[in-house]
Design a protein that fits this description.
Blueprint lengths: L3 E3 L20 E3 L20 E3 L20 E3 L12 H6 L3 E3 L1
Parallel strand pairs: 1-2, 2-3, 3-4, 4-5
Protein name: Leucine-rich repeat domain-containing protein
Organism: Amycolatopsis acidicola
Pfam families: LRR_1
Length: about 100
Amino acid sequence: MLRYLGATDNLLNRLPEHLGGLVSLRELHLRGNQLSALPDSVRGLGELRMLNPRENLRTELPDALRRLPRLHTLDLRWNKRLRLPESLGELEKRCCYVLL
């Protein structure tokens, strides 16, 4: 059962759709890659508490992030051309720390 996935500084430019199948995952660290988006399948990461996709080429975040009930930290610092979804406010209302 995978609970922590660290894929920092790996020059990743995309993530597989089956990422959402890691239902026990609690921390996902994606710092320092070349990602431009997260797959919509992240909605399947119901146990996720920490999502760190900072320092990427991201332009968009999926609306599916608001469907992560246990998410308490979302680190978006140092992303270029970041477009924030309106649902980001819902995360903050649930006491999720959103670092910009």
